[in-house]
C-alpha cells in the first residue's frame, strides 16, 4: 500500500498524461492499494491544486460507470500573459518577409509554446463534442497534435497531394481566398468515420480559403465542423472573409514591409 | 504556505511540464512558500515515485547554480509492452497498400501513441547533447515534436519545396535510395545555428536516402548529427542501406501484398 504523499505524485502524473479520460475510482484504488475513501480524498486535493495552479480541474462523473476526468483549462491570467509574450515576440520587424508574410517557424518550432497553444484551444473547446482534430499539411500539424493531445482524440491530416501511403483518397479542388488560384486537397478514405464531429486547427488564416477548402472536403465525409481554431488571423481581410465562426489567438495587423513595421494584437479568443 | 500534499501535486505537475529543465530549489521554495529542507524532502518523494512508476527520475545538480532536472525515462517492461502492442496493431493485413507500403496514418494520428514514441526516443537520447530535433515534412513532424518536447529543444522542419513563409533557404538535391529519383530538400537559413548538435527523427526508413539527404543538407549548416531515430525500418534493404547509426523502434518484414501477409517485429532499440 502506498502512502498518501506517494499516491498524490503517482495520480497527478497519471491524470496529466490522460486528459479527458474517464478514470474509475476502483482503478486507482486497485493500482495504488488504497481504500476508495482515501482515493476520493486524494482526488479532492488534486482537484483543488489543479484549480489553484490554473491548469484545469477534475470533473466527477457519478453512477456505476462513474469516476473522474481531468479537464485541462488555462487561467485567464496565464493565457493573457502567454499571448502578450507571443505578440511581443512576433512584433519583431526582422520577421517581415517579402509579400507581407511573417516568419513564425521558430515560434512554431518551440514544443513548449506549441503545447501551450494546444492547451488554450483545448480549454476553450472542452465543452464541445469533438471526435477528431483536422489540419492541413504542414504548419498546422504540431498545433493540431497539441490540441488533440489535451482533448484525447486523433489527428487527421489533409494533404495537398495524394501519397501512396495514404491508400485510397477523396480529393476536392478549391479556390484559394487570397491568391485566387485553384488548389487541391486530399484526404485518406480511411481517416474519418461518417458523421464525425471535427475541430479544424491551422496556423494562419487570411481570407479563410484554406479552411473553407477543408470544410468542403469534410462535407464529402458528412463530417460536422464543431470548432475552428487558428493561431493567427490576418486583419484587412474582413470583407473578403469566407469563414465566420472561428477562434483566433492573435491578429496580425498593419504589416508594412516598406517601413518594416508590424502590429500583433490578441485575437478574438480574448473578446468575450 | 502550502501543505506537503498540496506541494507534491503542484511540483509533480510543474516537473512533468518542464522536462530536462534545471529548476533551482529556491525557485520551488519561493513559489510554494516552504523551507528548502522541506522542498528537498518533497523532491525525494517525487524522485522515488517517478522511478517506481517508470517515467523517469530527478537528477540533482549541485553547486550555486544547482537544482533538479526531470529526466524522462521509460521502464523496459513498459516500452516492450508498448512496442509489442504497436507491432500487433501494424500486422493487420488490411494495412497493406499497393507497392508493399503500410497504412500507418491512424497509428501516427493518435497523440497518445505519438507522445509515447517520443518518450522512448527521448529516454534513449537523454544522455546525448542535443540542441534541436530535425525532421522532414510531413509524417515525421508529430514524432519530432514528441521527442523534442521531452528533450526541451526546438524542432526544425526540412521541406520538399521552398515556401515564402520560410524566408531565405538553403537547398540540396539528393538521390532517393529506393526509387533512384532526384529529389530536393530545403531548409530555412534562419532555422539552425552553426555547429548545432541535432537529432534526426523520421517515421520510416527504407534504404535511408531521405535521412542521408537530411544529413547532407545539415552539412551546409555545419551541424553535427548526434542521433538518428526512426519509428519503422524496412527489412530487405540491408545491403542498399546508406545510413548506419540509427535507432529504430520497429522493423517491418516480409510485406507480401499478393498473399496479404506481413510481419512486424521490434527494432534495434531493443537489441542491447
Automatic annotation (TrEMBL), chains A, B:
Q: Which GO terms describe its biological process?
A: negative regulation of DNA-templated transcription; negative regulation of purine nucleobase metabolic process
Tell me the ranges covered by the Phosphoribosyltransferase domain, including all copies: 107-249
A single GO molecular function, which one? DNA binding
Quote the CDD domains the UniProt record gives: PRTases_typeI (cd06223)
All residue ranges annotated as the Bacterial purine repressor N-terminal domain in the record = 3-72
Keywords assigned by UniProt? DNA-binding, Transcription, Transcription regulation
Gene3D superfamilies, alphabetized: 3.40.50.2020, Winged helix-like DNA-binding domain superfamily/Winged helix DNA-binding domain (1.10.10.10)
Q: Which InterPro entries does the annotation name? A: PRTase-like, PRTase_dom, Pur/Pyrimidine_PRTase, PuR_N, PurR_Bsub, WH-like_DNA-bd_sf, WH_DNA-bd_sf
- How would you summarize the oligomeric state and partners of this protein? Homodimer.
Question: Family, per the entry?
Answer: Belongs to the purine/pyrimidine phosphoribosyltransferase family. PurR subfamily.
Protein name, please? Purine operon repressor PurR
Mind giving the lineage of the organism this protein is from? Bacteria, Bacillati, Bacillota, Bacilli, Bacillales
Amino acid at each position: 500500500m502506498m502512502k498518501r504523499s506517494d499516491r498524490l505524485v503517482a495520480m497527478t502524473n497519471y491524470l496529466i498524461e490522460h486528459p479527458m479520460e474517464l478514470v474509475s475510482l476502483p482503478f486507482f484504488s486497485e493500482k495504488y492499494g488504497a481504500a476508495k475513501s482515501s482515493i476520493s480524498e486524494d482526488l479532492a486535493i488534486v482537484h483543488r491544486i489543479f484549480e489553484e495552479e490554473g491548469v484545469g480541474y477534475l470533473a466527477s462523473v457519478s453512477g456505476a460507470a462513474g469516476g473522474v476526468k481531468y479537464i485541462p483549462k488555462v487561467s485567464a491570467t496565464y493565457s493573457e500573459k502567454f499571448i502578450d509574450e507571443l505578440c511581443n515576440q512576433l512584433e519583431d520587424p526582422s520577421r517581415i518577409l517579402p509579400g507581407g508574410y511573417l516568419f513564425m517557424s521558430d515560434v512554431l518550432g518551440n514544443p513548449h509554446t506549441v503545447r501551450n497553444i494546444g492547451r488554450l484551444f483545448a480549454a476553450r473547446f472542452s465543452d464541445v463534442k469533438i471526435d477528431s482534430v483536422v489540419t492541413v499539411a504542414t504548419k498546422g500539424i504540431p498545433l493540431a497534435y497539441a490540441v488533440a493531445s489535451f482533448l484525447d482524440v486523433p489527428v487527421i491530416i489533409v494533404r495537398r497531394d495524394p501519397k501512396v501511403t495514404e491508400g485510397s483518397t477523396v480529393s476536392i479542388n478549391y479556390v484559394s481566398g487570397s491568391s485566387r488560384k485553384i488548389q487541391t486537397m486530399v484526404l485518406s478514405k480511411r481517416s474519418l468515420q461518417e458523421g464525425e464531429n471535427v475541430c479544424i486547427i491551422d496556423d494562419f488564416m487570411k481570407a479563410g480559403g484554406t479552411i473553407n477548402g477543408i470544410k468542403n472536403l469534410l462535407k464529402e465525409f458528412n463530417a460536422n465542423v464543431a470548432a475552428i481554431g487558428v493561431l493567427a488571423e490576418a486583419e484587412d481581410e474582413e470583407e473578403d472573409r469566407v469563414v465566420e465562426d472561428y477562434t483566433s489567438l492573435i491578429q496580425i495587423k498593419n504589416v508594412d514591409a516598406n517601413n518594416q513595421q508590424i502590429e500583433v494584437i490578441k485575437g478574438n479568443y480574448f473578446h468575450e
